[in-house]
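Operator note (shift B, R.M.): manual run for Putative glutamine transport system permease protein GlnP requested after the automated queue skipped it. Running by hand, logging everything below so the morning shift can see what happened. Input copied straight from the record, untouched. If output looks odd, do not overwrite the archive copy; leave it for review.
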Amino acid sequence: MDSQFQFDWQAAINSIPYLAKGIPYTLMISFGGLVIGFVLGIIFGLLSINKKWYLRWPATAYIEIFRGTPILVQVLFIFYGLPDLIGGPIDPITAGIAAIALNSGAYISEVVRGGVQSIDKGQSEAGLSLGLSRTQTFWSIIWPQAFRRMIPPLGNQGIVSIKDTSLFSVIGVGELVRQGQVYIANTFTAFEVYFVVAIMYLAITLSLSLILRLLERRGVASA
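Run finished. Output pasted below as returned.
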């Protein structure tokens, strides 16, 4: 069977305006979910190292459940399963944001825990010796140092969450992959369209990586 494939550059270029419609959804779901996930990560990350077991155990359970199950299963559960419980439908975008938030929050919790525990205990003792309370010592001395160390893994999680949005086409979210699927159904140019989709994801993640490197350098310079 003799077949000579030729990349159709015109088809790839023609697909860009249609595919670009999915970028706002991709960014909205990923960054919206990450903002909420960062808040959840701080809360559950700090609770996971709390000395009180009744605070530590629920936080640990949340972290293990959402780190130990695929995000695709999580979003399917939220979109198809929860409506049976609450008695009403859930918007696909809402389901996507919730899945990113809960999933990234679990991973960020571990980043927060590791960052805080990486700071030498002498820092806390120094703050207390200056007359600061434990709360003031943590937020004024421990947290700024820990946060600088968290920037690289937080950036990695951001990139992972952006790529995770590609799975949400299964619930009808109009992000990049979903736009590509619809376009391919009408044009039968799968190779060219998915090539453009990949380039778009690469452009987004590389831009985020560049921003994070700049932030990391500023953090080191100000340390």
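Quick read of the result: The mean pLDDT is 92. Residues 190-222 form the longest helix (33 residues).
Leaving this for review. - R.M.
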